[in-house]
Design goal:
8-stranded mixed β-sheet; binds S-adenosyl-L-homocysteine; 13 helices; alpha/beta; 5-stranded antiparallel β-sheet; Rossmann fold
């Protein structure tokens, strides 16, 4: 039985489900969820292309950023943790770029936080000496540098729609013909001070808030930093950001749950506020373009092109892709959370 049929049966028995429950099932169902079965990142036949898959320069600069921050921490033995490493390309590039930094590889204990079995196998091909855990809290204690690219966007969201009567939650239900369809809950009146306009959508990510506790506890337990890169917004636009991608094309999120990647934009202002409330130091959010330029991506592209003139055009294309506002440069944001009392991180 397909995941879609299972969800239809479930809804028939228990009623409509939240978008978050639907998204959770579509991504993480242990048997038929997207990540358990067919995650496809990078390349033509894949569903989506991420920054490390687009250019080696991305991982190289982040690797050097980590080496710099390790120096700032006083060069301790530490956990180099990546959340949701995909195919392992980012860490592979990070490790290659830092090969000649004295002591860095010896000090680093590489830990991958990954749920997907097939992706763990791919990661092991590129980074054989890593350790794998299912949750951040299972990583060994101690100073940590945490990186996460396109990880926060996987956390399931609940969606609320404002109309003339107030707020309604968007739900996933079934039609008489037994297909999945979006519907709305009864309305809750909007509070007096609510300035939202009818038609606006608000999104919240309860599991992301819970995950933030794990980050906070680690950053309070030992001097550490966590670098998050993702597409998202700083001021909510009131739009629906749920998106399903299959082979680089947007598809209907309800069409074939488990077969397409489902994501939502990250509310960076919210993540930053939660972190500040927990007494963490917050760098950013800034745009990916600002961050990569501050780390010297233009110079990196220039030196690589000089060394390999045959690749100059490709490198120029990759540079544009990562930094231009109409490509990945502006929609993607970078946020760095740090233990209290550390100096500001490089690039912010
Ligand atoms: N960082 C990679 C892949 C991004 S796709 C890149 O930039 O190319 C999202 C990754 O996060 C996948 O590896 C997926 O399996 C993993 N993932 C998603 N939700 C997760 C969770 N709750 N816990 C651990 N890993 C998760």
């Amino acid at each position: 039985m397909s995941l879609k049929s299972k969800l239809i049966e479930h809804i028939r028995e228990t009623g409509p489900m939240t978008v978050a429950d639907f998204m959770g099932a579509a991504l993480y169902d242990p048997k038929d969820g997207y990540y358990a079965t067919r995650p496809a990142i990078g390349g033509e036949s894949a569903d989506f292309l991420t920054a490390p898959e687009a250019s080696q320069m991305f991982g190289e600069l982040i690797g050097l950023w980590c080496a710099h921050e390790w120096d700032v921490l006083g060069k301790p033995a530490f956990n180099l943790i990546e959340l949701g490493p995909g195919r392992g390309v980012l860490m592979q590039d990070m490790l290659r770029a830092t090969q000649r930094i004295e002591g860095f590889h010896d000090a680093a204990n590489v830990v991958f936080v990954e749920l997907s079995g097939p992706l763990r196998d791919e990661q092991a091909e590129r980074v054989p000496n890593a350790d794998w855990v299912a949750r951040l809290e299972d990583a060994p204690p101690g100073p940590s540098l945490i990186v996460a690219n396109e990880f926060l966007d996987c956390f399931p969201i609940r969606q609320f729609l404002r109309d003339e009567d107030g707020w309604r939650e968007k739900l996933v239900g079934i039609t008489e013909g037994d297909t999945l369809t979006f519907g709305l809950s009864n309305a809750l009146p909007a509070p007096d001070e609510d300035e939202s306009e009818p038609g606006m959508v608000r999104e919240i990510a309860p599991a992301l808030e819970a995950f933030m506790y794990e980050v906070e506890s680690r950053l309070h337990a030992a001097p550490s930093r966590a670098l998050f890169i993702d597409y998202g917004y700083v001021a909510p636009e009131g739009a629906d950001t749920l998106q399903a991608l299959q082979r680089h094309k947007k598809v209907d999120p309800l069409e074939a749950p488990g077969e397409a990647d489902l994501t939502a934009h990250v509310d960076f202002a919210r993540v930053a506020r939660v972190a500040r409330d927990a007494n963490l130091a917050v760098g950013g959010p800034i745009t990916q373009s600002q961050f990569l330029r501050a780390l010297g991506i233009e110079y990196r592209a220039y030196t690589l092109s000089k060394a390999n003139p045959g690749h100059a055009q490709r490198l120029a294309r990759e540079l544009r892709r990562l930094t231009r506002a109409d490509e990945m440069g502006a929609l993607f944001k970078v946020l760095c959370l740090s233990s209290p009392n550390l100096p500001p991180p490089a690039g912010f």
